[in-house]
């Protein structure tokens, strides 16, 4: 784990300070005066000025960094800019370079996994795509833990397998839904989870969730199990409204029809059809919640 702040400290600061120290010395300031302005020791200034500190070539030639150094050199030398203003101006440029720019690129090189999310995001943004996606993945992992710790869950896994899925807030397709690749199966009386959750690996359960969301449901997660009327009754007794849909009508028609009759339904089920296994879908705000609702009924 490497934070972008480490990139700032290890790559930006040595380069920036050495450039600014050179700029100020060229304008006639003494090492002592430069040290006072930068808040560092005279020996550090000497190292910066004499090229004894490694510098990042991409930052060294970046026009915004060069422009910043020149503006600070002018302002600090003639007294038009205070050290506090210089600090603020520098912070502004750092934040700019962190947002899908050169510092973000250096961070991505240090943490290659960030490439999966593209480079144009602010790692500090609490609503960034990276954070939201990782929260969804973590939520599904917690849901899987509930399943693994639920006694006698395996008998409720249908022949087609179980999946627990969670959609991003603005999901538009299955690529925006986290699920278990290959689905969960009953392996000798226990649920077998074949792999870590990923985006875009569920077709049917994700489609049920997305269709429900398109037609009024505010659910973010869903799980499917074998149809059992006692489970439907137990879910209803626990305050979760069930509604039946036509297994042979197809998801695009059946789910909207069922929700039109009861928009608040959190349990969608079908009792089977020709070549179609009967299944229950439990909807809810997140993966641990929907898994927990089934745990409380099995």
From TrEMBL:
InterPro entries: Aldolase_II/adducin_N_sf, Cro/C1-type_HTH, Lambda_DNA-bd_dom_sf, ThiN
GO MF annotation, one: DNA binding
Pfam families per UniProt: HTH_3, ThiN
SUPFAM superfamilies for the chain: AraD/HMP-PK domain-like, lambda repressor-like DNA-binding domains
Domain of life per record: Archaea
Chain ranges of the HTH cro/C1-type domain: 20-52
Protein name: HTH cro/C1-type domain-containing protein
Organism: Halorientalis regularis
